[in-house]
Amino acid sequence: MSGDEQWRLLEQLVQEVNQQTEQLKQMQDKMRDLSATSRSKDGMVSVTVGPQGEVRTIDLDPRVYRKLSPSELSASIVEQIGKAAGQVRGDMKELMEPFVPGLPTDDLFGEAMNFEAFLQRPGRSPGPRPPM
Question: What is the CATH number that goes with domain 34-111?
Answer without folding.
Answer: 3.30.1310.10
